[in-house]
Amino acid sequence: MGRQSVFDWSGLRFLEGIFRENPRAEHNWSFGYITIKDQESRPVLVTFFCRALWKDDMLAPATVSRQLEERRKHDPYHLTSHVMSMGSLFTEGQHCYIDRSHPRWREAIGLMLDQVDITDERLDVSTLVLRDFVHDDELNQLIHSQGFIKIDMPESCVVEDLSWSDLDGYLGSLSARSRRHFKKDIEPYARCFDVVVQAEASEPEIDEFHGLYENVRANNHALNTFSFPRKLFAAMSAHPLWEFIVLYLKEEHDRRPQRRPIGVMFCYKNLEHTYVPSFIGMDYTYLEEYPIYRQLLFQTIWRARSLGFRRVDLGMTASFEKRKVGATLVPKVAYVQAKDNFSMELIGAIQNR
Fold it and tell me: Can you give the pTM of this predicted structure?
């Protein structure tokens, strides 16, 4: 299960500590772990689930979420419900390990779903979500027979070629079209920025980083989620496996009287193998003038290579931009089972309208 996203042992322990004992309902999550072994103690299936408050339109088209967010300005919990999901709202990747070479792997999936049903009743959730699967006909048929509906998720974006050692090597790993993109939209602007990698941040910097993150979250309707508590960002600063890649405009380009960051990437170092830019923050007032997002993507890949990592998990959404910097796109699906279809039908009606 390690070497993916933020769900190695240290990452999950970190998340368990953050999403508890918070004043707001959406910031309190419950984690549960399932391990199914055979008679010889060989793991056949390993996964984890998280109970959390979701926006019912989280995986709906962005046009639907934009309409619902207008309503939530006055009613913040409109069309929200508790969901038990494989994985968590913080992570993405292969949340379920299945040993497909084992002769009883299908039985293991049935046992997992039985346990999920028991937990579902106890925790009073409205929807079950099995997330982040690559489509597989046999697995699809097996899960579908248990009453789940398949939906498409945003593509997962992964950079797996970090074998290069310098800029020419990086450019050589890109397609001809991506090289042209780099020469036009990334390289000319690099001289406009100071790039600072920070393991820690001061209290004022944490406030700045939190605000930049909120700018992006509020505009990302392709994966519509609640905010994260501020203490998350303070905990990142105190944790040895997190670091911040921060963009500042050079003095000759910055019109503000005080030097302030215009972009930040929140990065997790997973088992010295996978570099994980979990979330991004940006100052939207500069987006038209400077390609902040593209620069942060490139600087993240460059940082991962400089640290000797072998893979970068760039996460979901914005797949078009991520492909330009060398990411491979992996289509993902989820399986949903709702106790009450009212919200799903209402969201479908909004989409059709």
Answer: 0.94
